[in-house]
Amino acid sequence: MTRLLVECVPNYSEGRRPHVIQEIVAPFRDRRGVHLLDQRADPDHNRLVVTLVGEPAPLQEALLESARAAVARIDLRGHRGAHPRIGAVDVIPFVPIGRVTMEECVTLARGFAERYAAELQVPVYLYEAAARRADRRSLERVRRGQFEALVTEGLASESRAPDAGPAVLHPSAGATAIGARPFLVAYNVNLKSRDIEAARAIARTIRASSGGMPDVKAVGIALEEQGMVQVSINLTSYRVTSVHRAFAAVREEAARRGIEVWGSEIYGMVPAEALIDAARDALMLRDFDLGQVLDLRLLDLAAEGGFVADVPDGSVATEGGGFVER
Questions:
Q1: 124-164 pLDDT, tens per residue?
Q2: 126 and 189 assigned to the same domain
Q3: CA distance 312 to 296
């Protein structure tokens, strides 16, 4: 019997205290029906991003247990970090993979939001495909002003009223955005500079909302501990704007300002196709397709039951083959 799996990429406002991070992640380990694929904590962002794949029922139980730990341990009244946030558990997106549809993820997100808000007494905003209001599809609009703006303005107005849970902000854990969205690539480019205004200007130039590249979200962030700045990017459709094109655009804009690129990073999981497309562009490969990648062909054969694949080291799992606010 085929199991239906969804991807979930909860983001927590904690990237500096290892013991708290372990407590938050613990409910995802050794749990039947839940697979912990990746966890990354960044002290400059002060943020933890966890990538999960699981069956809907056990996945929801694990998320609730993890959220209880985060709500108990994270106090946003003293939280400082480069990444925008409205809650201790900031965002919980459900992502369709395999045979699961976006409509099924919307139903899952909305049902989970009601239970989450009731059990944790944390107000919830529904975003992206799960949004009940057009002005809340964009996560940036939901998070406008961050936790501090919610404290100042309160949740009584129509624009700030939550979609689920109490119309009162949790005093320490804030609010949570829960949604359903397509797969995205979180991609960061680090610059050999402390000039935060330059990083912000580059982000404005490349992002779609400012007339830049389509399906690109970007912000400039200071990495204080590393002594540099970063252009933090979400590629909401890597097939429209590739990782390679995003990198090239940042490097070009940085060079115009006399700034060198220090390096870049993929944050969390990435489909093989996204990296192969970057290689195809960089190498100017012609008539090349995914079927030529040995690792992926072996995985396909294994999935068909032909044999147990001994996949070479360094392979990258595909999004559809079994296996993410910012």
A1: 999 999 999 999 999 999 999 999 999 999 999 999 999 99
A2: no
A3: 10
Q: Identify whether residues 68 and 200 lie together within a single domain.
A: no
Edge-to-edge strands, sheet with 261-266: 216-223, 228-235, 185-191, 261-266
**pLDDT at 273 exceeding the cut of 60:** yes
Full domain range(s) for residue 251: 185-267
The whole-model pTM stands at 0.86
- Residue 244: active-site member: no
Q: Which of 167, 121, 125, 120 is nearest to 144 (CA)?
A: 125
CA dist list (Å): 234 to 3, 63, 140, 298: 30, 23, 12, 30
Query: Could you tell me if 323 and 95 are in contact, meaning their C-beta atoms sit under 8 angstroms apart?
Result: no
Residue 1: the pLDDT is 40
Mean pLDDT, range 254-270, rounded to an integer:
95
User: Considering 19, 35, 79, 83, which one is annotated as catalytic?
Assistant: 83
Please check whether residues 174 and 194 belong to one and the same domain.
no
Helix/strand number for the chain, H first, E second: 9, 11
